[in-house]
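Translate sequence into structure tokens.
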Amino acid sequence: MTDWLIVGGGAAGLMAAGAACARGRTVTLLEHNPKGPGQKLLITGKGRCNLTNDCDVREFLGYVRRNPRFLYSCLYAFPPAAAMELFESLGVPLKTERGRRVFPQSDRAADVLAALRGYAAGAELVRANVEQLLIENGRCTGVQAGGRALRARRVLLATGGVSYPATGSDGSGYRLAAQAGHTILPPQPSLCSLVSPDPDCRRMMGLSLRNVALTLYEDDRPLFTEQGEALFTHFGLSGPLVLSASSYITDLAGHRYTVAFDLKPALEEKTLYDRLTRDLAALGGRGAAAVLETLLPRSMRPAALRRWGIDPAARAAQLTREEKQALVALCKHWTVPISALGDLEHAVITAGGVDVRQVDPKTMQSRLCPGLYFAGEILDVDARTGGYNLQIAWATAQAAARDDQT
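Result follows.
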């Protein structure tokens, strides 16, 4: 009998396996992806692996979208600083970029995965699908995998969510958790693209906006505002700002959601109005649309002209105050209606999962079935983009591995 059976060789599973091995425990790591453990790690951060965020725990919790209080104990026990120290000790030099995002200096997610595999090298790796949990007298005592019973003192489910199923995240852990009586909050995409019915998105697809401010509105109430980058696509919007905003959308059926871009966040409306007045005066008898040439990207100008609503033949120097103010409003409040979240398969992470009220926040052990533990994305906890979700995986995995009293 092994001390730990860990189901799922992703970020949380590898971290838990390494931590348990470091404590002298025997570990069997079950992974069903034929390519081996950690495949999703290879695509995180566009292949660079944003492995944590260099902030303190109190600030960190402010970026957690669902159930932040559940993470209080495990994050204080294993904060971002501890994760950074661990990876440095495993031979991965780190660097901190804008927004305190932490990356390997090599910009290679493969280096992070290699370090984790080395950390967990003491575990026995078994390639198998887990069919069911073994539960005896109300306690989890192992799993049935590949048609045979595997026994352990503790079983950890670290199977992830359902995004990017090709990497192994196929939602099988939800079925196993439900077998033990756990409530599963319906999985939904988080940190995903946004779908819009606005035809201008398709017309401008491929246009990347840099140094803009995005505000997400629920009805008329602002939910989220941040400055950075966004991308127009054939179906709507994507890019870092959009991914972060998506995690604030909770009820598309009951509310109206709108994204508003401030295309000139460094300029107050009056300052922008004065600049436009000077530019239009300098254009003299030229068509007023010429002012857009220095104001907006090329692929945005036709849509801007339609939205502005002026006669393209109108002379620049003859525009009224109201027409100039309309252009200012367009630049400061470019609105895009949102009709749906992007597809779940391509979301960065999955929201929903095991109800955390049924899990001990200090040990990650099931409150319903002793001997059963959870870590990582299988739990109903998720955060904004910026390294926070991987830090949650590290912290919950370490919390589980520490609970090794017989």
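Note: The mean pLDDT is 93.
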